[in-house]
């Protein structure tokens, strides 16, 4: 009966126009995203280095206008002149000699670190290169050097496109799609209660079937959409490399990981987030029994904490609802906004899992209370 009910739910879902629209949206979203991305301009490494050169140039100009003859000031002025020379060499070598570009990069790191050790004497505050950025630049350069990877990659290759895609789908967009899918996960059955009540299967088995069918449908269409978008990227630009570095926030610091690891993290987060929202949809269906109210309530639960993110430093119990935007967790943006240094991928995943388990417990309690309430009602009627 379990498998018959599973097939029945699958046919019901596929025949539903709402779910067909969701599937079509997920299939078309990523190819359209690729088309839009190819029309965007991206900052190249050369442009980035030229921008850094302008900052150093500006600092030198402002320092020369001060006319300070102290040894510390003159030493810092000389340091900046060397930084400027090194940046010029990097700009020259970027398309000429990868090894010499990296060598100059190591020299630039040493000069910037030396400037910080000397207190950046005389350098205008707006022109100081952040120490955290100095260290992250070194990590990135070392990774490229050790893995023999190119300095610059096309952002539209398959590997880079997949990173952009999972970042885009993560958060509010995925939340909305899954909530729309699950808005009638039980409501539709309650409309046909006289027919459905005759099926000899428990509520929790029905719930497992419904969550499983919705989850598999969303994941299948999402993966197919990613494959179509990735195929377009491969045909138009190239496959790229899944060993390319990407920076994530982990254990209170920025860490370099390959694209393959980043995508693995994001896919696992999407899976856990989708399951959490579907389980929450079951609870909302039990409480409100109205598709529109279920959708608005679900959006409110997550959207209000997202909109109030800066104030959540003082309302800690609402923080876990913002963790569904895993791209912000991995970038470290959410940890900085919430002033929560311990908020990294592992921490967020644990909390999302806890939320899913707590929601399941609330569903279980709700069903048990309803069961005992009905049992008590039947006893009273029997006595009368």
Automatic annotation (TrEMBL):
Domain of life: Bacteria
Residue ranges of the TM segments: 161-182, 215-233, 262-284, 291-312, 345-365
Keyword presence, Transmembrane helix: yes
Keywords from the UniProt entry: Membrane, Transmembrane, Transmembrane helix
Protein name: ABC-2 type transport system permease protein
